[in-house]
Structures are given as C-alpha cells and as structure tokens.
Amino acid sequence: MLISESFAAFKAKQKNVQWSVSAISENNELVVSLWDQFFEKRSKGTMTYADQVSRWKGLGNSEFIENLNIAKEKDLPVRAIIAKSKNPKAVAAGEPASNLGNTFHPKKDWTGKLTIWDGDNFEIEFSQCK
Minimal CA–CA distance to 53: which of 22, 23, 31? Predict the structure, then answer.
C-alpha cells in the first residue's frame, strides 16, 4: 500500500506526499508513519515505539516535530502506519529512506498515546482499539 493510501485510511492527508510522515486527521488524531524496527513489546497488550527525531534529517522532520508538539499539547490519540524498509540499517542511520523499497500498513486496530516527548526523544504506547 502506498503511504498516501495509508494516511487516507485514517482520514488524514499529508501536506506533501513526497516527504510528510505525519498528519492530523479529520478525527483530530495524530497519524504517524513509524518504522517497524523501533517497536518494542514492553508489557502485555501493548507495543511501544521509541525513537529520536534527531536520528534523521529528512524534509518531513520539522512537520513531524510540529505534530508531536500539537499531540502533546492537545493530548491527541495517535494512530500508526507501520513502515517497513528493505534496508533497515540505512533507516537506523538516518539516511534518506524514500527510495529504499518501503511498504506501509495502517494499523487500524491500534490506538496510541504519546508518553514521552522532550523535543528529541519520543515514545508512543499503542494498544488494541476497544
């Protein structure tokens, strides 16, 4: 599935389909594309995504930071699009990832909460929708 189709599944529209990796949906939810390799199972029934915005410098980074700030300020629910790359080492190194043969999958059955956001480090805890 294309990333734009994944955002549309949550009624969210990217500002720029070439580089936007986050958006606020029509339902007032933060929708984010997140790399599968940064998810951890920390407790039963949840998955936690932990990363740093400083890890990458892509064009969507500023917009992503802005949207994390909005989500924290307004306590928005978070919805996940799982991104998987054929080159996870390049992703981990913060290299441009748009041409790495990525796939995207909207996790319609998950809802999350931004639990840590300090301007660089962030964590989002996801659980099954009720």
Answer: 22
What's the mean pLDDT in 62-89?
95
DSSP SS3 for 115: strand
Tell me the C-alpha distance between 102 and 100, whole Å: 6
E strands of the chain, at which residues? 22-24, 30-35, 39-40, 46-52, 78-84, 103-106, 110-117, 121-128
Query: What is the 8-class DSSP label of residue 60?
Result: T
Model confidence, pTM: 0.93
Q: Using alpha carbons only, give the angle 62, 11, 98 rounded to the nearest 5 degrees.
A: 45
Look at residue 86 in the predicted model and tell me its pLDDT.
87
Tokens of residue 63, six digits: 């917009």
| Mean predicted confidence (pLDDT) in 100-127 | 95
Give residue limits of the domains in the chain: 3-128
Cβ 57 vs Cβ 91: under 8 Å: no
